[in-house]
Each structure stands twice: as C-alpha cells, then as structure tokens.
Amino acid sequence: MTRKQTPARKPVSAVANGKSIASSSRKRIAIAVAAAIALALGGAVVWWNGNSPPQSATAPATTAALPGDPALALQAEEIKQQLQAAPADAALWQSLARTYVLQGKFADAVPAYKSAVDYGADGAAVQSAYGEAQVMVAAGQVTETALAAFQAALGKDAAEPRARYYLALADAQNGMLHEALDQWIKLENESVVDAPWRKSLSARIDQTANTLGLDPKDLPGRGGAGPADEPSIKDLAAAARMAPAERTALLAEKTQTLAARLKHEPDDLQGWKILGQASKLLGDHRQSMAAWQQAARLTPEDAGTWVRYAEEILEANRDAHKLPPEFAEAAKRIRALDPKSFEGLFFGGLAEQDAGNIAAARSLWEQLLRELPEDSPLRLIVQVRLDRLDDGG
Questions:
Q1: Which homologous superfamily does the CATH classification assign to the domain defined by 28-41+226-390?
Q2: Residue 310: helix, strand or coil by DSSP?
Q3: Which of 82, 95, 117, 156 has the smallest number of Cβ neighbours within 10 A?
Q4: pLDDT tens digit string along 164-173?
C-alpha cells in the first residue's frame, strides 16, 4: 500500500445552573453533573478509548463491545425504524454506526458511517470513526479506503488524534517503523494527560520500540516536555496531584509565560489547550475560559473543545446572576455538531432555564433522559433537575 501525502498536521491538545444561578447548591450540582456527563461520554469503543492496543500490526483491536446486549440490539432496531421515515438523516446514520460499534458489528458500522458521511456528517470525528471501523473489519490493516477517511479527517482538523494514530500505523504496516514511532511519540507528547487513548498509545510506542531494539524509556523526544519555561504535559499531570500551594509554585510563572507567548502566536492550538488546563488547575477560570474559547475558534468542528469551553464559562460565572450569552451559543454549537451529545443537551437545558424558557429546558432534559442508558447514575441527577422545573425552577 502506497502512503498518500497527508495534510500538514498541527499540534493536538493536549487538555448548572438553575433559573437563577445565584444558588450555590444548584451551582455545585450543575457543575458536578457537567463533569460527570463529560466522563460518561465515549466514542468508538475500541482500543482508542483506553483498552489494550493490538499486539501486532495486523491483529484487530481489543474492544469493549457487548454483542449480546439486548438493549443495544433494540436501540439499533429503533434507529433503523426511524431511518425508514428519514433515510437521509445523517445524525441517525451516525447513531446507528455507533451502536453497531458498541455491539462489535464493525462490518455493519462501515456502511452506516458511509451513509452518515454521504448525507453530510463529514466532520473530523465521523470521518475518523469511519476509517477506524474499516480498520477493524480488515483485522487491523489500514486499507486504502480507511486511509482516505483518515486523510479526510485531517483535512477537517489537522490535529485529529485518532486519524494521526492510524496514519502512523499505516507507516508501520509499510515497514516504516521509525517514522511511525516518531509520529506516535509526537501524539503522546501533545495529548492531554487524561486522554482516554494515552495508555494504549504508550503501550504501542513501547511495543514498537522493543521491536526496533530500542529502550522505550530513552526514546528521543519522549516525555511530554514543553518549551522552556512553559507548562508541559508532565507538569499538568504532576500539578493535578499536588496541594494548591505546590501547584501554584510549579505552574503559575510557566503559565503566564505561555499566555504571553500565545498573544504573539494565536494559532498554536496545543498551546491554548495547555493554557486552558493549566489555568483551570490554578483556579483562574477566566483565563481558562478565554483559552478554551480561542481553542474552539481554531477547531470549530471539534465538539469536545466546545464542551471544555462551556464548562469553563460555567466555572467563571459561578457567582453571576445570569449566564453570559456565550454559554448559550456554545451549548447550541455542541448540539449542532452532535445533536445527541449529553453535554449539549444538558448545557442547552441550563441555557434555556436561565433564559426563562422552562418548556424548552424541559424538552432538552427529557431528551437527555431518553438518551441516557437505563443504568446510568446520571439519570437520577437529570430527573432531579426536571422535578425542580415542575416545582418552579
């Protein structure tokens, strides 16, 4: 297989209120829910989300699929029934593809993703997931059609991590192990500390280094070191485990150095995401919000970045009586990128409630309740929010 030329790749990241948000108890609940919802989200359930990587270039990835789960089978049937009435609904095709992935039915997921793309869902995430499903069907091989999907993903977002991983895997499968290793190390360094793929990516790097007879611990460029006097990925990981005073000592000066540089280099996506994370760790939610806002501007099709931005808007406005209009705009953007996004539905409800649109808030939260799995702990929290609407907000 001949490796096609890929677009220039930019660095990748790393990194509730009620009707009146003056109530501290409501704010604590809302922010806790937002964080819980973010943790509950998952994309394609393959090694990319934290499971073991394939042990060879040709082995299929380990999955967390539940092929015998009757709830998933029922969900797939319900989506197919909806598609009979709306066969050109890209969001429905994408939902069906995701459901097939959860079932481990990658051969069914591939045409579903293709239909989603054909009907307009051509963002970086869906293209990347489409390519990954093809890799799974091909027993771990990056085929020409999968390669095209990953290149299309990078055309939408040059920092898309899953596409970058598989393009490097294509290099490895073509015998270019050193080139693949360099790309994986770069991706590891540029990934946020809590990225679900870091563990698997690191294992892949170790495996490839061992194949080449190299010591994984001494690979050039490994370790996430950032530019001198700026916070690195390692700094963020260490700071998350520190007491506030130690965290400030480690990050404060470096973070301001990074902020000063970004004023002159506003297109550094990785820098903005690191600034957002570092500022959050320091409790400077205003600066974190501004950093994630810039990151969102640089990646307008990345729902995850918009989620981080919306979260920081909430944090920065904990003591405000009204949410700023930017929050409603961010919530709307998340839902536009992913109509069934848990965060998008929850944040959208908050924005509508804050604006006094109780019926609209109820509609969004009821939709969220329908989308959440029956055994999700979030269901009770969302139901409490709905009950409070019935009690007058």
A1: Tetratricopeptide repeat domain (1.25.40.10)
A2: helix
A3: 82
A4: 999 999 999 9
CA torsion sign, 268 to 273 to 276 to 280?
A: negative
Neighbours of 60 (CB within 10 A): 18
Fold observed for domain 47-218 = 1.25.40
Residue whose pair of structure tokens reads 């050109």 in the numeric block = 88
pLDDT, tens only, 335-388? 999 998 999 999 999 999 999 999 999 999 999 999 888 888 778 888 888 888
Evaluate whether 28-41+226-390 and 47-218 have a shared fold.
Answer: yes
Residues 6+ apart with CB under 8 A from 20: 321, 393
- In order, the DSSP letters of 46-81 are SGGGTSPPPSSTTSPPP----TT-HHHHHHHHHHHH
Contact 33, 349 (CB under 8 A): no
Angle at the Cα of 95 (from 334 to 81), degrees rounded to 5?
130
